[in-house]
Amino acid sequence: MRKLIGSLKYRDLRYTKNHPLRIPRVSLLMEFLRAMDLIEEDEIIESREAHQEELLLYHKEDYIRALQEADACMCVKRQHRERYNIGTYENPVSPAMWKGSLLATGSSIQAAEVFLKGGIAFNPAGGMHHAYPDRANGFCFINDPAITIEFLKRQGIKRILYIDLDAHHCDAIQDYYYEDDSVFVLSLHQSPEYAFPFKSGFLEEMGRGRGKGFNMNVPLPKGTKDRDYLYALEESLRIVKEIFQPEVYVLQLGTDTLREDYLSKLELSNAGFLRAFDMVREAFGEGIYIGGGGYHPIALVRAWAVLWCRITGREIPTEIKPTAKEVLLKVDFEEFDDDEDKSYMYNRLLDELNDEPVKQEVKSLMEKVRSYFLV
């Protein structure tokens, strides 16, 4: 059983104009997969909203009430803006804030439920890893990865591995499980020396108390390409396997690591992105798959489409069909570097792997990681 958790309702649950997450993502992926004949209707599970008791597995009740109030009037009280970080440019009041977040979170729990029944599911709307229990942060209002982890704990699972491949460090996840030895957090991301969230995601942050040694950060330099990234991931997974034996893992698959994404300085091809997914599966078997960041809609859809092919055992098509190309061309999105020819994204689905050798800077980084964790 291989399922995509999604809904076309996301078309109407968008962020405010000019926000990086205003772009179509899940609905565009569904339309593209259908146009490419890469999905059957019985492979789709319609997303459901998360329930109140599920939200409270992680979030504070007063914060949830503030989100509901803001959604009801599409406005925010000044004290709520200051206390909960709602209604800022980063975290604006919009239809995506509450109803979109509810759908994304319910979908991640659905993916976990499918997994627990012996199936495999991908929720591309998930991965909102910056939201704190009592405040919005980094475009995120409800932290579906943390809620999914707490849901799994309540099903009796005692050892959970959370792997975050988003370009940005999973600050709220790290903080919540920093003293918890039942959840191992592994994050590969842009170094906070130059990227959001700036204050966390450094190598030295390894956990505290019982959780010491169960939090691994791999802060990557600007210009990290396929071989750099895959080397760092392979070494990281090897170290984790020596330390932790998970019963299940949750894999966050943000596409902002791709070279076309303008909110990151990493330079992966979607072939590198796919290989990273393969490496995690080879190390730990099947897991629970959720989305994440990704701010170039065409790059995002191509990457998640090849991922879906891999999940379902389909052969990845070489060319994009004319009908699918039309779907992509209709996207209202303005390129920031329109001098660069990106026509390849509308013609072929899978990129070529960048074969530049691993940088010494990345090798040295992984030597440090090993010395920190394997003493």
UniProtKB/TrEMBL annotation:
The keyword Nuclease does not apply. Keywords: Acetoin catabolism. The keyword Heme does not apply. GO terms for molecular function: histone deacetylase activity. Residues 19-308 form the Histone deacetylase domain. Signal peptide: none annotated. Belongs to the histone deacetylase family. CDD domains: HDAC_AcuC_like. It comes from the Bacteria. Pathway: Ketone degradation; acetoin degradation. InterPro entries: AcuC, HDACs, His_deacetylse_dom, His_deacetylse_dom_sf, Ureohydrolase_dom_sf. GO terms for biological process: acetoin catabolic process; epigenetic regulation of gene expression. This is Acetoin utilization protein AcuC. PANTHER family: HISTONE DEACETYLASE HDAC1 (PTHR10625:SF10), HISTONE DEACETYLASE HDAC1-RELATED (PTHR10625). Gene3D superfamilies: Histone deacetylase domain.
